[in-house]
Amino acid sequence: MKKLTIINGPNLNLLGKREPNIYGSLSFTEFLEEIKQKYAHVEIDYFQSNIEGELIDKLHEVGFNHDGIILNAAAYTHTSVGLGDAVKAIETPVIEVHISNTFNREEFRHQSYISPNARGVILGFGLQSYELAIQSFIN
Ligand code: CA2
């Protein structure tokens, strides 16, 4: 069984509660239940934190024993050298995902410290961005 981990960064625990025009109205836990049922043959772990160091610790923890990591570092994408270094340091391939198309938003969202060391980047497809990343790991 393939083992994947989804890691979500700051404020993504608010999904479905605020700003539905940008991020949709489904909570991540609701989405995760759907996706776990659909991909029952895949082990899909989930971790969310609002704390940069906890996200780095989680990358270290799963980055040598999982088949893939799906990372939405949220705002830290655009600021965190530490998260970028962690993605570079681990062995498990990382796919960077974003719900929104960060390139049609503010200029500061065009910069990513994750992308240079990610296997790929999927953005702008809403929560489907995560599903596309799962499919890329299992196909
Ligand atoms: O589009 C994405 O997935 C982002 O990673 C989301 C981040 C943003 O800083 C990135 O530029 C793009 C923000 C996540 C905040 O999520 C919220 C969800 C509901 C209500 C408020 C914030």
Which key features would you list for this structure?
DHquinase_II_CS; five-stranded parallel beta sheet; 139 residues; binds ligand CA2; 3-dehydroquinate dehydratase
Write a structural description.
The record marks 18 as: Transition state stabilizer. It is an enzyme of class 4 (lyase). This is 3-dehydroquinate dehydratase. This protein is α/β, with parallel strands linked by helices and 139 residues long. The protein is built from five helices and five strands. The chain has helices spanning 20-23, 28-38, 52-62, 81-89, 128-138, and strands at residues 2-8, 42-48, 68-72, 94-98, 120-123. The protein has a five-stranded parallel sheet, with helices on both faces. Strand 3, helix 4 and strand 4 form a beta-alpha-beta unit. The longest helix has 11 residues, at 28-38. The two termini are 13 Å apart. Bound molecules: ligand CA2.
